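Supplementary material to the annual report.
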Amino acid sequence: KAGVTQTPRYLIKTRGQQVTLSCSPISGHRSVSWYQQTPGQGLQFLFEYFSETQRNKGNFPGRFSGRQFSNSRSEMNVSTLELGDSALYLCASSPGTGSFYEQYFGPGTRLTVT
Amino acid sequence: GENVEQHPSTLSVQEGDSAVIKCTYSDSASNYFPWYKQELGKGPQLIIDIRSNVGEKKDQRIAVTLNKTAKHFSLHITETQPEDSAVYFCAASRAAGNKLTFGGGTRVLVKP
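Predicted assembly:
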């Protein structure tokens, strides 16, 4: 099976702009979670989508949003970018059902805000 | 919310020696504990996980132990090799949700 793919791999944006990142999960997986990774804060959960609905949400401001399409592909959007949004954004794919959820990560999108 | 602490933050071992990384968690409802390995420029790779009804799990040179009473779990790598050099993360979650709470990471360097 193909793994999790994320596009683009690298992005440079200016403060105040907005950005959209894309994630395609492993075939058959219905859940996509998004995480932010920074040297200072580590890996932090943003949100999870399952069957086109947001099922879990982390403690990030409303500038961070996401959605999921009927084919399970997901996008996350960050509006009004701030310098502190510079990070590696990772998406993780999982079946989303059953008692325990193994999550498989993509390579990430490196976002730099200048 | 859940809080996961991971120690040590860096670990240097000689090739062939063992490496041990320890994590503690705060939420007694957590019952799924995966470990991830992250190499430079890549996303985290799931290497082993353990569930609350199991005390120990092994996969070749890697083993994980869980002590639910003390709320801590550990990763053991035996016969370390240079390719084991990476950053390792522990995490915890409740079965009911997909939210993983990660430890701060351990940078492991295996010296040949």
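The mean pLDDT of chain B is 94.
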